[in-house]
Amino acid sequence: MTYFIQQMLNGVCWGSILAMLGAGYTMTFGIIGLVNFAHGEIFMAGAFAAYFALHVAGLPFGVAAVLGILGAIAIGLLVERIAFRPVRGSGMITLFITSFAASIGIRTLFVMLFTDRAKPFSMPAFLKGAYLIGDLFIFKKTIAVVIVLVVVGALLMYLVKKTKTGIAMRAMSYDSETAQSMGINTEKIIIITFIIASALAGVAAIMWGVSYGRIRSSMGMMPVVDAFIASVIGGLGNVFGAIVGGLILGIGETLFVAYLPPELIGLRTLFVWIVLFIIIIVKPSGLFRANVK
Amino acid sequence: MPGDNNQRETGPILKIEGLNKSFGGLQAVLDFSLSLETGELKGLIGPNGAGKTTVFHLITGFHKPNSGRVVFKGINITAQSPNRVTKLGIARTFQKIRMLENIKVIDAMKTAFYLQKPYNVLDVLFQTPKYGREERQLEEKALEFLTFFGIAHLANDLGSDLPYGLQRRVGIARALALSPELLLLDEPTSGLNTVETDELVEIILEIKDKFGLSIILVEHDMRVIMDKGICDSIVVMHQGAVITEGTCEELQEDERVIEAYLGAGVA
Amino acid sequence: MRVREGFTAVARYPIGIGLVVLVLFLLDRSLPGFWLTLFLLFGINTILAVSLNITNGWANLFSIGHGGIMLAGGYAAALFTLPVFFKVDIIGLHLPGWILNVQIPFLPALLLGGVVGSIVGILLALPALRLRGIYFILVTLGFNLIMVSIAENLPNYTNGAMGLRQFPLYTNVWWVWGIAFLVIYIALRLRKSYIGRAFIAIGRDQELAEHMGINLLKYKIYAFGLSTFFTAIGGILWVHLILNLFPNAFSLALVFHVVTMIVIGGMGSVSGAVIGAAIITGFTEVLAPIEEGFQVFGVQVPHLFGLTTLLLAVVLILILILRPQGIMGEGEFSLQGLRKRLSRSKAE
Amino acid sequence: MKRLGFLLLVFVMAGSVALFGADKEPIRIGMIASITGDAAEMGIEFMESVLVAVDLINSRGGIHGYPLSVSIVDGQSDPAAFALKAHRLIDNIKVIAGFGACDISFATAAGEVFQAKKTVFTDIAGTTPTIPLVGDYMFMTPIPDNDQGRAVAMYINDVLGYKKTTIFKDIASAYGTKLTEYYIHFLKEFSDDPNPVPLVVTYETFDEDFSPQLTRIKAQAEKLGLEAIVLPTWPRDAPTIAVQARALGIDLAFIGTDGVDTTALIDVGGDSVEGMVYATHYDPSIPGQPQICLDYVEEFRARYDYDPGAFGTMAYDSLMIMVEAVKAVIDEKGEAWWDSAGLADKRTATRDKVATMTFQWTSQAFSFTPEGWPRRALVWRVVENGERVFYDFQSYEDYTPEGVETLPFK
Asked: pLDDT of D19-61, one tens digit each?
């Protein structure tokens, strides 16, 4: 039982990061129809900004976290400017490809500037350590990550459901032309969407740094696929769904590693995808209705 | 083809019995029945949302009915896939014009000759004389159709760039190219001005005779059908159900029709 | 044009083919190793791009799973083309004897790999064809990752992450460009037949296509089967040129390169796919000396590795901004069209 | 700022080449490494290392007065690019010899081309023992996995004395998979224990979260009697695994292999890797190394502010193998022959020297077996007070005693 709970906690920690990434991912898709492959690089940029603030400039953790989020937002807006705005309305495939090109470009630039070596990302003292219950380790960082997820998730839900901006976003996600004719400033909403999604990626980057203690230039490459999966599981465009999807994915991956026979652990990718295929084919709209948020 | 389709029936070319279709909780078509004689032109009218287009979707197999039967030329085509239905000889046009994007009118017409498949893959790959001959014939036939609709000069233009009225014609020409026996026209005059409407009605009557077609014409604007008096008979739908059927004259008196339209107008 | 018409169709082909063969022969003899390899990679990329164009460009089944197909075809062919001593004595694969103890020539291996690629492709397509847009992309993306995972986890049959080596160097100008011209020919011919028109109709408007009597499932499977057949063959040619096969050989990055080719060239255009393949193949290699540092007037320009990749990303975005339909749009390159355009510009 | 300094140095280097005057044609050697892409982490260290070594050689008058020019090209972590660049080095840049790569697929992609053009090629960091099978022009600098697996198994069994160990196997990497296989095979033989590695946990390159695997180890450690965790990983993974293991309260010993010897081990690993013993190829305090190697380490440290790890040293060794072979050719045949001989002759002569001579300028004296594997010693280092320091030394003869089956393949 301790083993199971410990593994669940591991899964929740990893899942929370995926959830945070997936939430941003799903917003850009739901509201402006962009499958943003550069989301991983926005995430990576956030981690680097925080790393420089923390380790090069020696700023306190709180400031570094804010700078990390700002860094992610900066790259997010850059992606919007170069890879989204000029080709807006040219169809999902074009957007998909420009965002992929932006992803490669930004990643290569970071490798050129900072190499691809792992860089340490030390966690602040108050997050170090764990509470021990019998054999069970409950890490402070896990608690922090979950609290951040809950708080940010609740704020996001409030924003999308209750605020004027959120209503405008939802209107746009249904039909951007109609939304425009209803007097919604779509330009502004797009920018706000990018800012929020990038900020979420920035938060995810800080969570990542704290949880795993290292960052590198190509760290965004794989998690972006996971975030993609998470948002599809939850119904593309549905923020709550993406968060749940991320948690399911994180816990699922962990449990595969925890309970498969050791020689089959390598096949966990296969298991994850098979589960996803079943979900997509049986219920293409994801576990939660898409477009509702 | 499953065996139950082989039982041949005599009589009307199209016979629909007790068709029902609901989407979620919404009953789109309710116990719809219709009978169409060979060579007949039937109007299907009703206010917006009456379920007319859904009936077309059900006939062509685009939607599967919850219950009921569609029999075409004595063959049960209920819930067959659209391509099968088309193969059997039913062609339709669309209310919202569908043009193959970035495709020349002539190529769109050739695509519509798909069913004829006058040559096989080997002919294509080895460029046999048969392929050349048949392709040329397809082109000539396509031009013939376009000439008939008075748009031959536009053969090399992109379909999606044409003005609205001409797109309607391409749409009907394309449906005819499938050499149907039954043509389903979904609001062919919507979005057209009076001159264009008149011309199109002319064309419809002309093709009906020339190709020996049976036609169902869906229209939500009552005047088009009533004023022209082109339909042999008219079916009136309201909220998914047939409320009455009759000739033009009969219906003009019918209170239920007026009520349906007025009710819709008020709502 | 007058003179041309003097030739009959029968006479024109041998002359054209003869010319192409002569050019290939001269290139094969005269190109130094680097340019020859580049030329071969260009040919392989042409095969990949033209065949990917059938699904992604025409039938609008936007697949990014063709890397998995190349992997399946590549391994299927590799198990038969590898020398027996390598399979048995060096890496010790656990395969049935009829695979382990034979080494077959290239042509049957190509066909075998192509068929396996096709079968795997259709097996992928059957459940995936119900899906549209982003879901289809996601499933094909996952397919790629799954194939890599399977190849990694079956070391008894694939040698796992260590991969396979010691392939005979089969790939040459004749195989590559012979097959490339075959694919181009088939694609161009199909496009001008009811089959190609059915593919394109499905790609543009699936419902309309269905109402034109086209059997969606059948044609989607045709498109996928044809495309994956040649994609697998492209993969096998790659394996027997680079002489390497390992689970990550055809990663997502490679698939995106091919997607980029057809997007730059113009989705749906066969000649566009060829042009795109030329640009993407040549781009990083021709510009490579820039990133490696060089001397100008005695001043050493330092290394800037990664620059070409960065430039490629920039160029790709610029092309999509300035000419979203790609270089060729959906049209095809033709001498007449070119002549027409030239005379028009002269007249202006 | 460090970056800028690096660029300035490259300018200085260009100047130093100019000093030699025009009468002697430079000796061209090519290096192909993944400086971008998935394997960039190692390629950059190769490049840094080689730039230092080239400077060092040229500042000492080059090779018999011929300036040394190393062309570095980027394989982009893509075997097709490796093959193409290999062609370019051979045909366009006309190198005498080449070296590079960090993985069997990249090494053999380039190696096949070098083999076909009869030019010698040495792999820097790919350790799969089948690499030299490409042909008689292909060699490998690092200790192959079968030898390292044997050496590590022997050391753990005989010296460190752990009876039961567990191992992290990276199924996406040839290095991790192969080393795991050999390690288990030899440990069974040395320990007379049918199951000395009762638990093998797998992961995949690019994984970040190892806590599920570690939790699994923790749950079974007592039952299985585990004493140590062996980490044959890429540089980025071992320290992260160590950090996460310590956080979970796992106090088993860590044993690393040559893949972990980079600055990231301490930077990322911090306190968690303290006391970790690992096998590698070099330590500045190993006995019998030449002065030039010590100078190289000093210069490297001065330039980049960290110690060259296994990867930097392997790149340095690979370069020195070529330099020494070329020098030996000139020694033997004279400068007149070198100036007049054709490129093909020079390449063959260089290959023959590589195959037969014992290298003295490399970090340790060693020679190649007829198959192309190196006979070199394994160095053990330990992390002590946040520094990587010398721990022990296993000579080739130590870990390859008479009668032991070396098991090169399978």
From this structure: 444 578 899 999 999 988 888 888 888 999 999 999 999 999 9
CA-CA distance, A172 to C135, in Å (whole number)?
21
Residue D379 phi, psi (nearest 5) = -105, 140
Shortest distance, CA A125 to any CA of chain D (angstroms)? 14
pLDDT confidence of residue C10: 55
Nearest to A7 among D208, D215, D239 (CB): D215
Helix (H, G, I), strand (E, B) or coil at D32: strand
Sequence-ordered strand ranges (E) for D259-306: 277-280
- Give the model confidence (pLDDT) of D90-120 as tens digits: 998 999 999 999 899 999 999 999 999 999 9
Q: Is there a contact between B100 and C193 if contact means CB atoms under 8 Å apart?
A: no
- Structure-token pair, residue B142: 């396509």
Cβ-count burial B178-188 (b if 16+ within 10 Å, e if not): bebbbbbbbbb
Residues in CB range of A224: below 8 A, 6 or more apart? A21, A25, A37, A39, A40, A43, A103
CB pairs under 8 A between C and D: 126
Is C92 in the D-facing interface, judged by CB distances under 8 Å?
Answer: yes
**In terms of CATH architecture, what is B12-98+180-264?**
3-Layer(aba) Sandwich (3.40)
The domain spans of chain C are 31-251
Helix or strand or coil: residue C282?
A: helix
B102 residue type, one letter: N
- For residue range A236-292, list pLDDT tens digits in order: 888 899 999 999 999 999 999 999 888 788 888 888 888 888 888 888 777 776 554
Closest partner residue to C149 (CB to CB) among A29, A105, A267 is A267
Residue extents of the structural domains in chain B: 12-98+180-264, 100-161
For B171-202, the pLDDT digits (tens) are 899 999 988 999 999 888 888 888 888 888 88
pLDDT tens-place values along chain B, 267 residues long: 344 444 444 578 999 998 998 887 788 888 999 899 888 889 888 887 788 889 999 999 888 999 999 999 988 998 889 999 999 999 999 888 888 888 888 888 988 888 888 888 888 888 888 998 999 999 999 999 999 888 888 888 888 888 888 888 888 999 999 889 999 998 888 888 888 888 888 888 888 888 888 999 998 777 777 777 788 888 888 888 888 888 877 877 777 777 777 665 443
Instruction: Inspect the interface and report whether the beta carbons of C243 and D47 lie closer than 8 Å.
Output: no
Any C CB within 8 A of B157 CB: no
Q: Of A212, A261, A266, which Cα lies nearest the Cα of A18?
A: A212
b/e map of C43-82 (b: 16 or more CB within 10 Å)? Answer: bbbbbbbbbbbbbbbbbbbbbbbbbbbbbbbbbbbbbbbb
pTM comes to: 0.92
CA distance A248 to chain D (A): 15
CATH no., domain D146-280+378-399: 3.40.50.2300
Per CATH, the number for A2-282 is: 1.10.3470
Sheet holding B182-186, edge to edge: B90-92, B182-186, B214-219, B41-45, B233-238, B241-246
Write down the domain spans for chain D: 2-143+288-356, 146-280+378-399
Please report the ipTM that was assigned to this predicted complex.
0.91
Using one digit for the tens of pLDDT, what is the confidence trace for D325-339? 999 999 999 999 999
Nearest to D84 among C34, C163, C293 (CB): C34
In CATH, what number does D2-143+288-356 get?
Answer: 3.40.50.2300
The CA-based dihedral angle spanning residues D343, D349, D350, D351, taken in that order and rounded to the nearest 10 degrees? 110
D278 forms beta bridges with D256, D381
- DSSP-assigned letters across all residues of A50-65: HHIIIIIS---HHHHH
Query: Do residues A201 and A76 lie in contact, with contact meaning Cβ atoms separated by under 8 Å?
Result: yes
Q: Does D74 touch chain C (CB under 8 A)?
A: yes
Q: Among C341, C37, C34, C305, which residue's Cα sits nearest to residue C176?
A: C37
